[in-house]
Amino acid sequence: MNNLASSSISFVVASEPNLLKVRLKQRVMERRCSPMTKRHLPPSLKKKLLSSCLPPSESPPQEPPKELSPPCETEEYQRHALFSSPSMPNISLAAHHVLSPDLSEAAVRAACTARLGMPLTGQMLPGTLPFYPSLPAIESEHEETPLDTISELQEPQQSRGVIRPLGRTQSSPLPLGHPLLEGPPPPAPQPPQPPPEEQEQRDLELRANESRSIRPLSRALSSPVVHLGVPDGPPLSRRRASSTPTTGLAYDSQMLKHACICGNNALHPEHAGRLQSIWSRLLETGLVSRCDRLRPRKASTQELQTCHSEAHALLYGTSSMNRHKMDMSKLSSLPVTAFVRLPCGGIGVDTDTTWNEIYTAPAARMAVGCTVDLAVRTWTGDIRNGFAVVRPPGHHAEPQQAMGFCFFNSVAIAARVLQREHRVHKILILDWGVHHGNGTQDIFYDDPRVLVVSLHRHDDGNFFPGTGSPGECGAGAGLGFNVNIAWSGGLSPPLGDAEYLAAFRSVVVPIAREFGPDIVLVSAGFDATDGHHPPLGGYKVSAACFGYMTRQLMQFARGRVVLALEGGYDLPSICDAAEECVRVLLGDNPSPMASAELARAPCANAVVALQKVIGAHGAHWPCLQEAAKAAACSFNDAARNEKDDKDTVSAMASLSMQHQTPNMVSGYHPGCSPDAGRPSA
């Protein structure tokens, strides 16, 4: 009985419930096409499989094989014995160790209790398994195991000293009805969505409000940007927290899609190649990687209406579906209420300003949004200054009129947003394009908080757009805050660096210094550069001169200067000028100008134009009277004269100090007696 009990205990220890399950499960699943089917083994073979788990050291007394089973069954069973895995507790598979059929369950329980010191649980009994709702019973797997699978696993017996229980596996399929097998709950009913146009407008307004919030982006580290690789540089929202504000760049490829439907850029000078060329130049020179990219966005309708009428904003800023919803009485107030057919076969507002029904409105709103964000973030200190590479241009756009390639006045809208939402008191707008910014002048003509200064070709009103004479000085409270440096005399000779340098030192810089702006916005048209045909400009201003003018403006408003691209149609010239301006904004020294231009005095036509400006605004800006003497001088002569003046002032100050020093030593002061200050006897 002791032998039987010890053999029973060995059987219990060796028959950990998951031993056969884990070892045979993989083979069973590979050989069976369906886990739900069963293949039954003969009862005699099943009994012998269970009895084979007894190790030989604890086996009971052997009985003759003929009493257990026929010889054929024994031989067949021995050919299909299992091996013991080195990674599992040892299972002896000797065919001659069998379980006595006379052993009862009560005897096994009693023997285990005496040997182990604890009662035997149901999971330790032969033929029983722990219950897992998601797993099939191991006894079923024994019954399903084919004989050829057992024969493949036969190996020599190995002995192991330590029996480790296997971890429970949960890799079987879940039973039917399990909660994890149930599909996701049905989605909640969604509220009705607004029309696409209204949803887009809401998104634009939300983004506009977020962009205008005052928060230092230099501390933001987790925004998604827009990073387009090393050449494109880090976006503004990904700037390192330890870095200082730098130059911001605004650009988006959506503005390239605005084009005439005829597809012939040779007939339309304002085309997408302008932006592509400038952006490629900035990438090639590595300037983009030194700047912060702003996330582009479209301007909202409310922003457009800060400078334009509601009808104008809806006509040129929305799709044809929204235009059908417009109040026709408002539309009739516009000067242009319908588009015209161009000679090229396209559509336009006039013969110059082309219109694309699909792409023009988004591009125009994108140009405004980029410029506004650049100005706002410069004001809030997120960036030091900025350059907006945008199109279509905007300085010709009036409150109710699109013209001269322009639909919305981007710089004017940026100034209005700064005034109304950020309480900026003094804004300087400088327009150095060869064409007069009639739209900007019209919007701020009576506003004393915005000083508008324009350098443009006028030719006594015979050059487009014909406005911008020196006598147009403003109206009402804005009188004197609209300064037009109107060049006349045609192209005899064409103006260059000497004339623009004279205008800066005699008019622009003195007025700006006296005005004291809080921020400087530049309508940066580069159509005064060399390479433009006479109808589009005809002047010969160098890229280095534009860099010098940018440097001069950076001495005001603590360096808060924002440039927005306007005109400029000769690709090499505008690329050179844009590159030079961005370099100067980044803090690089401007390129040297030609020595001949520095030594040349401005032409007579230019001197006459400057004298007209000084005469028209001398009463409003007293500083112009002192600066008028430098209008006819060359750059070098003006620099020498300025140096001589400074030396003279310093010498006079030194003489004054020397005159006062002896008097202070002797104790004599004018108006006092010689004996004053002396001690009495």
TrEMBL record:
The active site is at H396. Pfam families: Hist_deacetyl. InterPro entries: HDAC4/5/7/9, HDACs, His_deacetylse_dom, His_deacetylse_dom_sf, Ureohydrolase_dom_sf. GO terms for biological process: epigenetic regulation of gene expression; negative regulation of transcription by RNA polymerase II. It is an enzyme of class 3 (hydrolase). Residues 268-585 form the Histone deacetylase domain. It catalyses: N(6)-acetyl-L-lysyl-[histone] + H2O = L-lysyl-[histone] + acetate. GO terms for cellular component: histone deacetylase complex. GO terms for molecular function: histone deacetylase activity, hydrolytic mechanism; metal ion binding. It is found in: Nucleus. The keyword Manganese does not apply. Its EC number is 3.5.1.98. Its main location: nucleus. Keywords: Chromatin regulator, Hydrolase, Metal-binding, Nucleus, Repressor, Transcription, Transcription regulation, Zinc. Residues 51-76, 165-205, 225-247, 660-681 are annotated as: Disordered. Zn(2+) binds at C260, C262, H268, C344. Residues 182-196 have a biased composition (Pro residues). Belongs to the histone deacetylase family. HD type 2 subfamily. This is histone deacetylase. The lineage of its organism: Eukaryota, Metazoa, Ecdysozoa, Arthropoda, Hexapoda.
